[in-house]
Amino acid sequence: MKLHKFIFGLSILLLAGYSVFLAVKFPSIKEIIPVHYSSGGADGFGSKMFLWLEVGINAILLFFIGLIIAYPQKAFGKESDFLETSREKAIKNRQIFLSVLSVIITLIFCGLSLKEII
After folding, report:
1. Closest C-alpha to 112, from 57, 31, 40, 74
2. Is pLDDT of 12 > 80?
């Protein structure tokens, strides 16, 4: 299995696990939750449905990152002026970077609202 597929799969599993966890805990979450924080603490409030918006935005971002990873020739073009020694190595490095970025994005989106769920 290629490394970038494994890493990207982790972000998909994280999002799926978070979605299941949110679905199980959703009835016990308060109806109004903080959605914005400043130095003084929470200063913006909204419905608990906002938590599903975060899941949706995360899923959309993962979809587009997944497209770039799956079709790198279309995303990165056919130019030969890469810093790496070959085009294949350059594409592989970019796929790994995007896979790691997808995990970071998923951790950020899931971590932002975890405090309200637990």
Report:
1. 57
2. yes
pLDDT digits (tens, 9 = 90+) for 15-54: 999 999 999 999 998 898 887 778 877 788 888 898 999 9
| CB 98 within 8 Å of CB 65 | yes
Residue 94 to residue 114: CA distance in whole angstroms: 30
- Which amino acid, residue 113? S
Cβ atoms 71, 45 nearer than 8 A? no
Q: What residue ranges do the domains of the chain occupy? A: 3-117
Phi, psi at 78, each rounded to 5°: -115, 20
Q: Which residues contact 51 (CB under 8 A, 6 or more apart)?
A: 22, 26, 29, 33, 113, 116, 117
Q: Which of 97, 92, 101 is nearest to 72 (CA)?
A: 92
